[in-house]
Amino acid sequence: MNSKKAIAILITIGCPLLLALFKNNEFNIPIPYVIIGIVVLTLLSLVHKPSTAQLYKEGLSEEEKTVEEVKASQKPPVLYLRSFQADRDIETRFVGNSIQVEETYEYTLTKYFEPIGPLVTLLNKKTTYIGGAKIDNTEENWQEVFHSYAKESTYLIWSWGLSESVLWELKQLLSNEYRHKLIIFFPVEGIPVEVRESYWSNTLGALKQMDVNIDSLPNTIGNSMFIIFPEGRSGEPIDSTPSLLEIIASVGACDLLAISLRRLTDTLGYDVEKGLDSGSKLAVLLLAIGATFIFMMIMFNSANPIWFYLSTVEIFAYGSLLWCLVLISYNWYTTRQYKLRWLKSGIQTSTSIN
Question: Where are the transmembrane segments (predicted)?
Answer without folding.
Answer: 30-47, 282-300, 306-333
